[in-house]
Design brief:
8-stranded antiparallel beta sheet; 17 helices; 20 strands
């Protein structure tokens, strides 16, 4: 196996465990985030596809009605170019001449296959400059309207998507798939139709568009909100009137309800070209957007024909209709999304990841505690391998190992190095008189005094039963002798309690040797010379320091 990099080997075991678990957490987070992102993208694609399917089906309903209106427009234009002159047509024209002066009238043929032509009097038209009866064209238009009335009877208001179909003429009459029942209703209906913006705009647009959609507005006959599609009737450059179809909010909402798929659990909204609501299909648990979120949504819709957006913790998709001047919008809350297959899959994956993270944290805590205990055990074992358990000074092997290292360092720096060899006087008598426990207390006291007198870079070790050795790097003989003398004096001034009524004191003898004396940096010779001077101090009466001779 390849060795770990030096930077990694320097890390503590506990930090390595932290880094390893962090790497596992980040890796699992990345994989989970990636899968959730894929599921989210699939969810958005399914929403767009479901909305596109609903849009296609809704537009096909609109288109079916519009195709019928285009057919009627062609039929009317053809009838204007090729008017018929049968007996019932002559009768209708004669009837019109008798009725045209009345304020309101209905022209009904005594035939089951015709719809009534509804109109207002000549004087009524003088109130509006847009309306006029061109006598040169009136005969052909009435005949064409009569043919149109024969076909219009086949419209089925209950089955058709549009709720009503109109032909509104500038010549003061109209035909409706739902004809008015009274003469007063005739005037009111005609006045309403010719005042609508979709009708009056035909005179200002040159040429008028083949198909024009109104914005949402309230119907005059209690139909509620509705849209109207309009196409002009033109022949030889003259504008006769307009065919129009009304689509009520109720029928559009009913159609949306039948088209809804399980993928569209949220609210569905149809907006007109001015982004005003036409019809909506609300979900039971749907939540309305805030005013700020709605304004942001409408701004996005105005810029893009289709797209998606997240607002107020809701996913919104929209698409511009091709055959209708408006937009279809789906608004789905987070709760609705989570009830779908992909939402449940995302929730399950997120739950599994959170469970994995909890188990990972549990395993992390267990392993960190285990590593921490092993590290503490390793530190204790390493300490016991290098230090004396009683005095807490370096043991003999560790002391001489570091002694050699300091010798090499001082030699390289050409700096002096001094050794102090110490021994407790009459230590055997202490053990024999006060017992080995008192002897241990004496050793501990000596070790404490030695440690207090040393610098951080100095070395001290127990090299025998009651023998200690001290190494003072970058220190001369005279300075080391002063250090040894302070140790000796402090120990001699203290007593050691055996019990409440007995105490004793101990002294030490020391020998000091330095590399500056002969330029000798050999550790064994320096220690041997210090040991020789230690025994010289003992022969001279003990409790003293010898640094020469």
């Amino acid at each position: 196996m390849a060795a770990l990099p030096l930077s990694v080997r320097k890390l503590s075991p506990e930090l390595r465990v932290h880094l390893l678990f962090l790497a596992v957490f980040l890796f699992s987070f990345f994989l989970t985030w990636r899968e959730l992102h894929i599921l989210k993208s699939n969810y958005e694609d399914r929403q767009r596809a479901a909305l596109a399917e609903m849009q296609s089906r809704l537009e096909s309903q609109f288109q079916e009605s519009i195709d019928g209106m285009i057919y009627y427009r062609r039929m009317l234009t053809y009838a204007l170019a090729h008017p018929l002159d049968p007996h019932h047509a002559r009768y209708a024209l004669a009837q019109f001449q008798q009725l045209r002066s009345q304020p309101a009238w209905q022209l009904r043929l005594n035939m089951p296959r015709s719809m009534p032509i509804n109109g207002v009097g000549d004087s009524w038209l003088t109130q509006d400059a847009l309306l006029q009866r061109d006598e040169a064209r009136l005969h052909e238009e009435l005949l064409a309207a009569l043919e149109f009335s024969f076909i219009l009877q086949f419209s089925d208001a209950a089955a058709d998507f549009h709720s009503r179909f109109w032909y509104t003429s500038r010549a003061g009459f109209f035909i409706s798939s739902r004809p008015p029942q009274t003469l007063s209703a005739v005037s009111a209906s005609y006045a309403t139709m010719v005042s609508r913006p979709w009708f009056r705009a035909m005179a200002t647009l040159a040429p008028p568009p083949q198909l024009r959609w109104s914005g949402v507005y309230q119907g005059a006959e209690k139909e509620g909100a509705m849209l109207t599609a309009t196409t002009p009737i033109l022949y030889n450059g003259y504008w006769y009137g307009a065919l129009s179809m009304d689509f009520t909010q109720q029928r559009i909402a009913s159609q949306l309800s039948t088209m809804r798929r399980s993928a569209l659990l949220g609210s569905v909204l149809l907006l007109d070209k001015a982004q005003q609501p036409v019809a909506s299909l609300d979900a039971p648990d749907g939540k309305p957007l805030s005013e700020k979120a709605r304004q942001r949504l409408y701004a996005q819709i105005a810029r893009q024909p289709q797209g998606t957006l997240r607002l107020d913790q809701q996913f919104i998709s929209w698409s511009r209709l091709k055959n209708v001047d408006g937009y279809l919008v789906n608004q789905q809350t987070l709760a609705q999304g989570l009830r779908q297959d992909l939402g449940r899959a995302m929730l399950f994956m997120l739950t599994m990841w959170l469970l994995f993270v909890l188990l990972l944290l549990l395993a992390h805590q267990i392993i960190v505690r285990l590593v921490r205990r092993l590290s503490q055990l390793s530190e204790r074992l390493a300490w016991r391998a290098s230090y004396d358990g009683l005095t807490r000074l370096l043991n003999r092997s560790a002391f001489f190992e570091r002694f050699d290292a300091e010798v090499a360092r001082c030699r390289a720096l050409n700096a002096p190095l001094t050794v102090i060899q110490l021994d407790i006087d009459h230590f055997k008598a202490v053990n024999d008189t006060w017992g080995h426990q008192a002897g241990d207390q004496a050793l501990i006291r000596v070790a404490a005094i030695i440690s207090q007198a040393l610098r951080e870079k100095d070395l001290a070790g127990r090299v025998g039963g009651e023998e200690f050795c001290v190494v003072l790097p970058e220190t001369g003989l005279a300075e080391a002798q002063e250090v040894a003398e302070r140790m000796r004096a402090r120990l001699a001034a203290k007593t050691i309690l055996v019990n409440a009524s007995h105490a004793f004191s101990v002294t030490l003898s020391a020998g000091v040797a330095s590399s500056e004396e002969r330029g000798d940096y050999q550790a064994t010779r320096l220690q041997a010379e210090a040991d020789r001077r230690l025994y010289l101090a003992k022969r001279q009466g003990r409790n003293r320091v010898v640094a020469g001779g």
